[in-house]
Amino acid sequence: MSMLGPAASVLIAESLTVRFGRRIALSDVTLAIPEGRVVSVIGPPGAGKTTLLRSFNRMNELLPRASTTGAARFRGIDLHDARVDPVDLRRRIGMVLAETSLFPGSVFDNVAFGLRAQGVEEDLHGRAEEALTRVGLWTVGAEILDAHALDLPAGDQRRLCMARTLALEPVVLLLDEPTGHLDPVSAAAIESLIHALREDCTVVVATCDPALAGRISDLTAHLDGGGLMEYGPTRELFTNPRNSRTEAYLTGRAR
Questions:
Q1: Which of 6, 49, 192, 193 is most enclosed, with most CB atoms within 10 A?
Q2: What is the DSSP letter of 148?
Q3: Domain residues for 220?
Q4: Which among 57, 63, 122 is positioned nearest to 91, based on CA atoms?
Q5: Residues 70, 93: Cα–Cα separation, whole Å
Q6: Is the pLDDT of residue 119 over 70?
């Protein structure tokens, strides 16, 4: 668990266990994510990385036969408290999925979708411009708004998904495999964006790529088989791992 206490943490998992039917996807995970940092969650496919991210904005409950025990907290509030509105929660803790999930239509339609779903109708073009500027897609100017979203290159589609989420001004941004299947130039653009976003929000990245975690994150958690193997400052975890399974994963012996 992080050495930072609850007062410094924006997200906390406490003995968090998630099951899908009889399958345990996440097992007794406890960790604290400090505000204003980039935190990476690494591990092989099926380790529980995506499940952990989805626990923090209650997306797991949208899946069949999902059940959760333990606690997940946002700024000290139990996310499963009956008074918590899941829709509002997913605005404050936004998530960009590994698979690009754009809608047919223009770039503007995609960015405005989340805003309209939240009842926002004022200054949609201004907020779209701001979000697209943040992700580096406003370089061609206002004409980007009318471009067909599905005609964009893969890297730009990924950044558009991020813009759609950032338009809602989340406190936390959850990114699942943000550079997966991208060419090196597009991946580098996403990495630069993640570095810039730490000025405005907490970023939590799930990735199978330890090298990515090493470049972008302040803290890294290693999951394996649904359990937390190790969590701490990235440089320390990479240079002096305390857990033998973490060492094996980082050196490639476990992959």
A1: 49
A2: B
A3: 6-79+87-102+154-250
A4: 57
A5: 19
A6: yes
